[in-house]
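Why predict the complex rather than its parts? Because the way molecules touch one another can change local conformation, and only a joint prediction can capture that. The input here totals 957 residues.
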Amino acid sequence: MEFTDILIYAVYILIFPGALFTCLFGLWLAGVDRKVVARMQKRKGPPISQPAWDFLKLCGKETVIPAHAARGVYLAAPYIGLASLIVTVLFIPLGGLQAFSTGADTVVILYLLTIPTLAMIFGGSASGSPFAGVGASRTMVSIMAYELPFILVILAVGKGMTPDGYYFTFSLEQITNVQSVFGPNIFDWRLLPAAVAMLLVIPCEVGQHPFDVGEAETEICEGPLVEYSGKPLAVFKLSHAIKMFVMTALFCALFLGGITTGMLWLDVVLALCFCTAVTLVSMTLLNAISARWRVEQLFKFFWTVVSGLALASLLLVWFC
Amino acid sequence: MTYDVYMHFPVIAIMTFFVGAFIVTLCGSKEKIRNVVAGLAVLIPLTLLALLIKPVMVDGEIIVYWMGNWEPVEGYAIGIAIEVDALSLFFGLLVAIAVALSGFYSFQYIRQDDARGSYFTLYLMLSGGVMGIVLSGDLFNIYVMLEVMTFAAVGLTAFRTWNPNAREAAFKYLTVGSVGSTCALLGIALVYAQCHTLNLAQISAILPDNMTPTMVLAFALLFAGFGCKSFMFPFHPLAADAHGAAPSSVSVLISGVFTKTGVYGIIRVCYFLFRTMGNEAVQVLLIVIGCISMFVCVTMALNQHDFKRLLAFHSISQIGYILTSLGLCTALGVAGGLYHAINHTLFKGLLFLTAGSVLYATGTTYLEKLGGLARKMPKTTILFLVGAFSISGIPPFNGFYSKWMIYQATFEKSAETGNIFYALVTVVCVVTSVMTLASFVKVGHSVFFGQLRPELEGAKDPPLGMRVPMWIMAALCAFSGLFPNIMLDYVIVPAVNAVYNVIPYIDTAMGADYAATHLTSYMPLMNGQLSVIGAWSPLSWLLLFAIALAAVLLVSLLGRSNRSVTCVEDSKHAVFFGGEQAEYSHAAGGDLFWGFKHNLRHYLGYMSRVHTGVTNDYMVWALTALAVIIAYCFAFI
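Output of the joint prediction:
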């Protein structure tokens, strides 16, 4: 490997689309989300840069470690979660930019996405607070809730048809390539229910209102985050923002991929615009119009309605 | 080393265990000598089998050892053979590793028990029995070893005789387990009547072309017999009791090794002896049993309140993965199943040993009586987390790699056959995996995190002698997750090739061209090529993760350090209780996952009701299962 290669990879990992850009874009998405929700509720809302300022403010605050906490896990959890999220971004093709997309496939990403949530569960659980215990339990239930429709969506997208016949794949690269020939999956009527299911999975995986049962502020004081303060809390908030980016980017790769203009930078900008649009449709809209669900409602909804949609798509792809 | 030297290794490996078992008894109460003998008895087989990796796995040789030099006469194998191909060696290695690590763990672990002498006798008998099964080339020999293994395991289950649960579990195990042994014996008798031989290689050559109705019955009996030994559904309640009540070091063997002999037996029966695996009915039978085992046991595990019982149910759930994957009858499926078998031995061994450490330190494994141990037992906590992440398939640990192979194998099978059934099997596997994660979150939260119970103030990490075997297992978990290519090249693929092509297995034992003359309708059961439809490179993930973590930490450390250093018992550092007086309120154990349990309450309630714990009921299940399997085989084969 030559020096320029190393430099290019370093840029990929650390600046774009890696650590720095991911953080900034995630915070921007969170800001847009808050602003639009406020406008929908006829409020003026904070400036779009507010999540970034919140992050910086938290970084300056004192980090209090509860006397009952298991210190190692308590302090390590947020950083491990953030780092694994940044790595997950690298595996998802963004526009035509496939930095490391041969490193992992859709199923791997499904599993990689549990790591940040798991970090939050164990971090919260290590804090020794009963609120965090309840929050961790609820967060785990929401993981169980969304995983079923998620895998059904992956299988539905993974089976497609080309003029040569069927193909079965988990590879994001191949899914993108096929879409660049046959048009984005979202225009395939058989995959439409799966797309809707995925739009509902996104807020649940991100932990966004109305599916934020694990962090319900008014009931269990932000659950796993109740004891966190200072930098670790800032990192968790940042991870939450980045998750919005990861999930929308994954949606774009699965359903809106392969739209090319011929210029790489324009493709990437277009993909980022799609990410924003998906954020508005899947997260902001639900956030603004719905109250928080109870945990058993959430589980039931995902295992019946959302899974039903995804399963319908799978059956349609199979038999139509 | 030449063939003349290493052809003796397998038989020495088996003998060492049995000879060791008797010498241990002679040592009486001399603890040091006994430990040295037991240590040697578990290390020698491991060394010998490790030396066989080069000739058998890499060079593809097959070792045949005729006991007493009774070689085949006029095409009939009259003597007892020990035949080691890559598949046997694969299982042999798995056994040797688990036995060695768990053996070293037991030196410290059973120090509080009485009757330590008989512990090692039984332990080595169990190990020898298991090793005998996987290395033997003779069907009746397998049965004998099966009985040795079963009775040693029953004895070890009841080892802590002061514990009534242990005695009860041993009794259940004895009665219902005997159904399995009886089935196996009956099946073997029928095969002998038909083929006039007990040699595995010779039967593999004769039987597939002579599938009379009697042989269908024999197949069903052998299948049920080995299935009972692998504790597949509906034989699973035995495992829960036995694993739960036995000392942890024995649970490692029962869960990691004993059940694998059942899997090994099923592979030999379905892929070698009868070669019925090409029949779609048998594939569906294995897959359906695998999926039911997987799902039922993981939901049962979510309901458990005891650390070790929970682990026991997870064993069967993971056996379900293995059976499902083997049932696919594709190269990737067999590879995934075998990979999961070795991973299961490693991570479940690790988890049982951590459970043993918790028991050693606190005297209980009851989830509701534990809590907050991470502050007192930090090393055990890390080991537990490695095991928990491995079993729940969190990348980059080993459980993920094998599960990922299984998902691909099932999805690929659905591509080959165009049957949506296999895609739904993928879904069951993924859902089971996330429930596995949930139940380990439950264990982690209930045992290691949360508030420390006042009565556990004195708990501390186990001594070095117990920690080292656990670290080795954890390191192996990480290794087999991070370097799948090495595992595949040296261990898995040779074993898959052995399953794929049975001709060398027959010819090496019975002489050249024996297979060609007897097995006229030979067709390979599956495509021998491993092909993957996805991508996952754990090493590049690890590299990227390390860089990202370094970057994140660096940025974090660059800022002002503003951590409050003093960690004293004041209100600032106390846990938030909404302004109320702090009290002990650890939400753990059965309190967790209410939303999930509420939605599935009818199903979970039904499952709790039918698992009565009464031996008679489980006997009825076992016999019903036997009847169903026999009827199914007659209907579809």
